[in-house]
Amino acid sequence: MKLSKLGYWFLPPVVFRLMTGMRNTLRRQHKLGISHLRTDLNELRRKRFNYFLDDRVIEEFCQYMERDDALNKPVATRQRANQKYLDELIDKGCCVVSNAFPAESIRTWHEDLKQIMDAASKRCDELVNTHGRASMRNISESYLGNRINFELVSGVIRLWDVHLIRPQLRSVLQNECLMDVVGSFFGGNPNQPSIYLEYKNKVDWYEPNTDYHSDSPFRILKAWLLLNDVGPRNAPFVYCERSQYLGDWRILRDLLEFSKYNKKHKAFYAHFSRTELAHLGSEFPDLCAPAKQIAGKAGDIIIADTRGVHGGTTLHEGYRLQLGLVFSGLGNAFIGNIPDEIKNLSRDSH
Fold first, then answer.
1. DSSP string for residues in 231-251
2. Do residues 243 and 311 lie in contact, with contact meaning Cβ atoms separated by under 8 Å?
3. Same domain for 165 and 301?
4. What spatial distance separates the first Cα and last Cα of the chain, rounded to whole Å?
5. How many angstroms separate the CA atoms of 111 and 229, rounded?
6. Which residues have C-beta within 8 Å of that of residue 61, sequence separation ≥ 6?
């Protein structure tokens, strides 16, 4: 019989509890560093919320949000026919412009750009063989004079500023409907967009973007011109309609993401579980709708307010080739470029 059981039967209760408490204390101090736990809890009691981040972070967050709203209020589209897209974008957070480009242009671009990306895909295979998919690495290199990014875990390839090597693609930036809707969304003041070519051809590879997330608390529009048909098995985009609005269900997440609190330990606060969103969409349909796949035909443009909750899907067959554009408005702060003076007000922000 163990000594602890013998002590229970033969020692007075007061003596037994005292001995057990001392033994457990020593074990916790050895295994868990209990002295640190007590220190942290005492500091938390004393500082309260300031234990995590300075109150000034909250004030900065509110000012950024108010400035974003004041400078970028939507205005009516110049062309009445485009207003329906803007209305849907404001209300639901996502819209699709069908047949935005002639089929012949899309076929020509597709044939040319797919050859470029098939060659880049061989380089992706080399990098995967060297580093392994499990490394979760994103590797940037120079390709045709431009920056190219290889996401090893998914095999997704992004070639940036592709219009510099294929000037004919500048016509995407001159598409009347796209630019009318985007410009009106930002109150007539959109910044010059970045543009990239994205290729996904690794069937059934893990896709980290299947984790639903929000890109930023601030206004950001992303648009994708599909260069091939995308159906349910070609890794379509997924969006939760009406989730783009600021509300108490997500405001703490937005604040923590803005503060970069716990960046040191790779914590992501802009991610949302499917169970959470399913309950939210069911119980509060005015705040968030269940996730919806956005399929489309070659030549369609998908426009999304990526403040809203969205994600990707796994490629089950074929491939997906698309041009992506990223738009922001006046005074916009990209969530990845929060100034150091703000991050320095948060614990573990570096």
1. -TTB--EEE-TTTTS--TTTH
2. no
3. yes
4. 52
5. 14
6. 217, 254, 255, 258, 259
Cα–Cα distance measured from residue 119 to residue 198, given in angstroms and rounded to the nearest whole number:
13
Count of residues making up the chain: 350
Is the pLDDT reported for residue 238 higher than 70? yes
3-state secondary structure of 238: strand
Q: How many CB atoms lie within 10 A of CB 78?
A: 14
**Distance (Å, whole) CA 19 – CA 308:** 56
**CA-angle at 338, arms to 337 and 341, nearest 5°:** 135
Which DSSP letter does residue 124 get? H
Cβ-Cβ contacts under 8 Å for 47 (sequence gap 6 or more): none
Answer yes or no: is 273 within a domain. yes
Q: What tokens appear for 307 in the block?
A: 């403040």
Please tell me the pTM assigned to this model.
0.87
Q: Tokens for 205, please give them.
A: 């590879």
What CATH number corresponds to the domain at position 175? 2.60.120.620
Least confident stretch, 13-17, 125-129, 166-170, 318-322: 13-17
Domain annotation covers residue 301: yes
Total number of domains constituting the chain: 2
Contact predicate 210/164, CB 8 Å:
no
Same domain, 37 and 179: no
Q: What is the mean pLDDT of the chain?
A: 89
Kindly state whether residues 265 and 192 are assigned to the same domain.
yes
- Residue 303, strand partner residues: 95, 223
Q: Tell me, yes or no, whether 348 lies in a domain.
A: no
What digits encode the pLDDT tens for the residues 21-30?
656 555 555 5
The domain in which residue 8 lies consists of 3-51
In-domain check, residue 350: no
